């Protein structure tokens, strides 16, 4: 599945938030959307969720205009892990994941063996198969996020859009989730806060600033210390990760004294 | 001994069902509710200011249904067929309609504390009803006369729902909090206007209105049943078709859109279905509060929040509940009758407060 955004603009209450953004994610590619708060990441993603109609430009999935599709058809092509999801009271984990089958079912069609198998497979892929009969309200934040990911997987859509999926998760759950989504083989578009995670997991990054693309390309070509300082207003250092040895982005407040810092240099 | 105890303690807990009733047990629950409803209707028809033996009641019913059999004495026939049966059926229909309206409106505003009265629909219906005698001698007498009390109540209820809908949207989207606040505000306005109109009525007119304002299924006739029955059935059928979408909507608007639910259309449909049901019921039986809040909640405690179970179970439980309440209202203070609204509100307010505290504690598993 290939995602193309061409000249996408979006307004909220007649205020322009996103202005002429071009963005592409090829089949199986992980594209990270980064940028300071208020740069328009969530708003841009909403034009792909179909919860905010773009005021200009086109969103295409394999060349088809996403906004001209019927709701169910769109849901068969792209799944979403939203930033804000209400905890559904009174539904079990399996029932929540089964709502992801909506676009595959006729209104009165009962769940069949295929649906149950898809739900169980989705739960197994996120490591939550043991919780199928528990209530959502009985789970921790990290577990709920994995169940919601399972719900998105139950849509069997080749494109997955995620809005800051690691928010509110502890570090272990964050890395687990990122490892998991990268292993799915789907086309991924994810807004991420943590530049180091974006660099470690994404194939390409798109940097938004004030609703426009400030830079795009392979993470370490785009996220240079000078560029990070320009966009985010923090000091940055790219060096080998002390554990993995792979390139690692460290950031510091400009107000902090530099004590014996290594030379700021660019890797990649 | 110790060994046995230890073994008992380490045995893994049996798999817990997420809801007290799920899967095939739901069918049993539905069957039990149907049986309970039939039993309650039979009791409701036999008991009253005069208690009638079941045999006689059955004789009248058979005579009417088959056109054969011994025609019992006309007074008995009249009491059973023209008074008690329509009354029991109207109680069942009103209870079912208000419960299903509650399910629809709770899904619409995604607030489980919402009920059919939160959108001001009920207060508007009351205003419409009191306007009929008040406008009797004015230029509008022709209009109100043509509508009748029921028609005027229905028209006012739908007008208020339309007004709430127009006021609670921004750029074509309904906003949850605006819906509730606008509904409450319109409701207060209608209540104030109703009070003003009541002051203009003479005591005889007022007496009739009071009973209606507090809710009652007394005086039901077969003619009152057709429209509510048609609306309850068609709204339930439409909601049943949307059950999967309603489940998806529980997770929030954005999540539902992502799953492929046409959320904007669905929410307009929910508002229409909820207002139609409430307006129809209120225009026939007056203001019977809290059923739409209590019944769906009790149902969710038992079967969980999946609308494929909540909708049919709420329909039957609501019908059963109001038939029983009407029975209680008739026998609590014989030979006088109390308005059923007093009972439903008396039960509903403590339930509401308990629900509120329970949610505030955050320890809910199935609210």
What can you tell me about this protein's structure?
- Chain A: Residues 3-235 form the ABC transporter domain.
- Chain A: It comes from Nonomuraea montanisoli.
- Chain A: This is ABC transporter ATP-binding protein.
- Chain A: GO terms for molecular function: ATP binding; ATP hydrolysis activity.
- The complex is a heterodimer of chains A (268) and B (367).
- Chain A is 29% helix and 27% strand.
- Chain A has 268 residues and is of the alpha/beta class.
- Chain A folds into 2 domains: 3-219, P-loop containing nucleotide triphosphate hydrolases (Rossmann fold); 224-268, no CATH class.
- In chain A, the strands form 3 sheets. Chain A has a 6-stranded mixed beta sheet with strand order 6-7-8-3-9-10, with helices on both faces. In chain A, strands 2-1-4-5 form a 4-stranded antiparallel beta sheet, covered by helices on one side. Chain A has a two-stranded antiparallel ribbon with strand order 11-12.
- Chain A is globular, with a radius of gyration of 19 Å.
- Chain B is built from 15 helices and 2 strands.
- In chain B, 74% of the residues lie in helices and 1% in strands.
- In chain B, a hairpin with a 2-residue loop joins strand 1 (169-170) and strand 2 (173-174).
- In chain B, helix 4 (74-109) runs parallel beside helix 9, helix 4 (74-109) crosses helix 13 (291-303) and helix 4 (74-109) packs across helix 14.
- Mean pLDDT of chain B is 82; it is low at 1-14 and 363-367.
- Chain B starts with a helix and ends in a 6-residue tail after the last helix.
- The chains are: A alpha/beta (268), B mainly alpha (367).
- The A-B interface holds A 13, 46, 49-51, 71-76, 79-80, 82, 84-86, 88-93, 95-96, 99-100, 102-103, 105, 107-108, 133-135, 137-138, 148, 151-152, 155 and B 15-19, 110, 112, 171, 240-245, 247-248, 250-255, 257-262, 300, 304-306, 364-367.
């Amino acid at each position: 599945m290939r995602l193309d955004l061409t000249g996408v603009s979006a307004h909220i209450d007649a205020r322009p938030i996103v202005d002429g953004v071009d963005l592409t994610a090829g089949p199986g590619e992980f594209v990270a959307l980064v940028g300071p708060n208020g740069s328009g990441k969530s708003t841009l993603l909403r034009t792909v969720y179909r919860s905010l109609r773009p005021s200009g430009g086109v969103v295409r999935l394999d060349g088809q205009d996403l906004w001209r599709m019927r709701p169910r058809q769109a849901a068969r092509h792209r799944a979403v892990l939203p930033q804000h999801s209400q905890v559904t009271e009174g539904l079990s984990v399996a029932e929540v994941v089964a709502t992801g089958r909506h676009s595959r079912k006729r209104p009165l069609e009962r769940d069949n063996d295929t649906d149950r198998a898809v739900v169980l497979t989705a739960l197994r892929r996120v490591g939550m198969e043991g919780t199928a009969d528990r209530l959502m309200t009985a789970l921790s934040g990290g577990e709920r996020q994995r169940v919601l990911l399972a719900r998105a997987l139950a849509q069997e859509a080749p494109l997955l859009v995620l809005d800051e999926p690691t928010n509110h998760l502890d570090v272990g759950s964050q890395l687990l989730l990122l490892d998991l989504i990268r292993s799915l083989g789907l086309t991924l578009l994810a807004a991420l806060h943590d530049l180091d995670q974006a660099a470690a997991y994404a194939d390409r990054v798109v940097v938004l600033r004030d609703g426009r693309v400030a830079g795009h390309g392979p993470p370490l070509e785009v996220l240079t210390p000078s560029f990070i300082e320009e966009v985010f207003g923090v000091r940055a250092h790219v060096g080998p990760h002390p554990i993995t040895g792979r390139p690692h982005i460290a950031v510091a407040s400009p107000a902090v004294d530099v004590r014996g810092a290594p030379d700021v240099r660019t890797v990649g | 001994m110790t060994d046995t105890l230890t073994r008992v303690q380490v045995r893994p807990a049996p798999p817990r069902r997420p809801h007290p009733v799920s899967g095939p047990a739901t069918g049993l629950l539905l069957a039990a509710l149907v049986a309970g409803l039939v039993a309650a209707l039979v009791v409701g028809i036999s008991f009253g200011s005069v208690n009638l033996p079941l045999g006689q009641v059955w004789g009248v019913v058979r005579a009417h249904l088959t056109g054969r059999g011994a025609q019992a004495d006309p007074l008995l026939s009249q009491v059973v067929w023209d008074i008690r049966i329509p009354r029991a059926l109207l109680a069942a229909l009103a209870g079912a309609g208000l419960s299903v309206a509650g399910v629809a409106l709770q899904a619409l505003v995604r607030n489980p504390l919402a009920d059919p009265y939160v959108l001001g629909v009920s207060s508007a219906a009351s205003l419409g009803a009191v306007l009929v005698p008040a406008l009797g001698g004015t230029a509008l007498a022709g209009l109100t006369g043509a509508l009748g009390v029921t028609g005027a109540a229905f028209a006012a209820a739908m007008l208020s729902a339309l007004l709430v809908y127009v006021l609670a949207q921004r750029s074509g989207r309904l906003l949850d909090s605006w819906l509730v606040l606008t509904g409450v505000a319109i409701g207060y306005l209608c209540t104030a206007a109703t009070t003003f109109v009541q002051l203009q009525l003479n005591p005889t007119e007022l007496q009739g209105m009071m009973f209606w304002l507090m809710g009652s299924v007394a005086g039901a006739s077969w003619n009152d049943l057709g429209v509510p029955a048609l609306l309850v059935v068609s709204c339930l059928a439409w909601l049943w078709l949307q059950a999967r979408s309603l489940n998806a909507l529980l997770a929030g608007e954005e999540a539902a859109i992502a799953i492929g639910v046409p959320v904007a259309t669905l929410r307009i449909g929910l508002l229409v279905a909820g207002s139609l049901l409430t307006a129809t019921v209120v225009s026939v039986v007056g203001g019977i509060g809290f059923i739409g809040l209590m019944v769906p909640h009790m149902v969710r405690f038992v079967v969980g929040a999946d609308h494929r179970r909540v909708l049919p179970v709420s329909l039957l439980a609501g019908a059963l509940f109001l038939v029983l309440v009407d029975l209680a209202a008739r026998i609590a203070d014989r030979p006088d009758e109390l308005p059923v609204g007093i009972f439903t509100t008396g039960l509903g307010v403590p339930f509401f407060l308990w629900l509120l505290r329970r949610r505030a504690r955050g320890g809910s598993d199935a609210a």
